[in-house]
Amino acid sequence: MTKTPHITVIGSALSGNKGASAMLESSIQTLGERLPGVRFTLLSMYPGEDRKQNRYPNLEIVAANPKQLGITINSLALLYRILPPLRPLLRRSSKAIRALASSQALLDQGGITFTDGREKFLLYNVASILPAINVGTPVFKCAQAVGPFTNPVNRRAAKAFLPKASTLVTRGSITHGFAEKLGLKNLYAGADYAFSLELDGTEEAAAAKHFELGFFEGEEDVVGLSPSVVLQKKVDERGGDYTGQMVAFIDAMTAAGRKVLLVPHSVRTGTDKTHNNDLPLCREIFRRAADKSQVLFLDRELDSQVLRYLIGRCDLFVASRFHAMVSSLAMSVPTLVIGWSHKYKEVLEMFELEDRAFGHDKLEPAYLLERFEELAAEREADAAKLAAHLPEVKARSLAQADLIAELVRSRL
């Protein structure tokens, strides 16, 4: 190798959404093993928060909030493409352009892109990958959900930009089917990158600094619950009361002699803004819980490995956050999912557990309890399916690291 391997990443983070953190840290772990000396640059929506949490000496954080990305970085990348004499100046004056120009690949780690019903995010979906395309850096779209493509605006955008990626890793069979029907040929049937995240053995001690881990001891089942402000908005918009429903579920659990681990899986420290932040919602849920002594509330931002360790201590789990579900499945915890798109079901299908997901439109206290008791009664069968399929799912997740490493080596 004549050059140092360099990879730029967009769509993930260290702070905020811990699913995004798990994807980023999985790529740093797995590609560090395959590409000695590799450097990473994260184009970050929250650069200040990400820098505070950056413990990786080979990771640089470069500011790329939506305005910077959409206007500044995209404009400079277009100039880079159409005015070659300006390229040295652009590389010197813009950290983002310098990173893209020196990288062998851009990893797009957006969890769900180019999807009907999310047209307001289309500009960001395009802006995330267009600078790399203009600079001439291959785009590798890590495992994600895309489609369906029935909306004409979304379909046109997807047909224009998704073929420009060197590889699109689909996160499940439903996404793969949507992509094939769109005519895409650059597909690889994988699994979410966060399934590759490994624990290093320090997580228990790190968790014990903040929480009494004796909570997990005893004969009572510990039920994990990961609420989501995304689900809250969808339920409340149709006249429901998501917060009240989560409180009612916790109260039913504790009244039945169970314990509850309350998990905000997306947390932004120092703000009450709810974008990528489940903490204010979980604070309100905990405040209204009847028996707080039987609830362990993770009331602060934790890193993705510590969260995964704590989720793995649960006996059963109820998830609304996608990557909270991934962590519970990765730790072989029988899981019930309340979701809002096909991205949940297609992952559960890999474990023959797709029936464990239902849409937020069905969420009512009685129905949630009914579905939970089914899960509890059939936990041994679910655990057996998790044990049988998890090695294959992890292998499909890890395969994308091999594909990325191959792409990088080919450009050194």
Distance between the termini: 6 Å
Can you give the helix content as a percent range? 40-55%
* Biggest sheet overview: 8 strands, parallel
Shape: globular
Which structural class best describes the helix and strand composition? alpha/beta
**Strand content bin:** 15-25%
Total beta strands: 16
SS element count, helices:
17
From the alpha carbons, calculate the radius of gyration and give it in angstroms: 21 Å
Residue ranges: pLDDT <50 for 5 or more in a row?
none
Mean pLDDT: 96
Describe the structure.
With 412 residues, the chain is of the alpha/beta class. Helices cover 48% and strands 16% of the residues. The protein is built from 17 helices and 16 strands. It has helices spanning 18-34, 47-53, 66-82, 87-93, 95-102, 122-135, 152-161, 173-181, 203-208, 229-237, 242-255, 279-288, 304-312, 322-330, 342-349, 365-377, 379-410, and strands spanning 6-10, 16-17, 39-44, 59-63, 105-108, 112-113, 139-146, 167-170, 187-189, 222-226, 259-262, 266-267, 295-297, 316-319, 335-339, 357-359. The strands form three sheets. Strands 1, 3, 4, 5, 6, 7, 8 and 9 form an eight-stranded parallel β-sheet that branches. A six-stranded parallel β-sheet has the order 13-11-10-14-15-16, sandwiched between helices. Helix 11 (242-255) packs across helix 12 (279-288). The longest helix is centred in the last third of the chain and has 32 residues, at 379-410. The termini are close together.
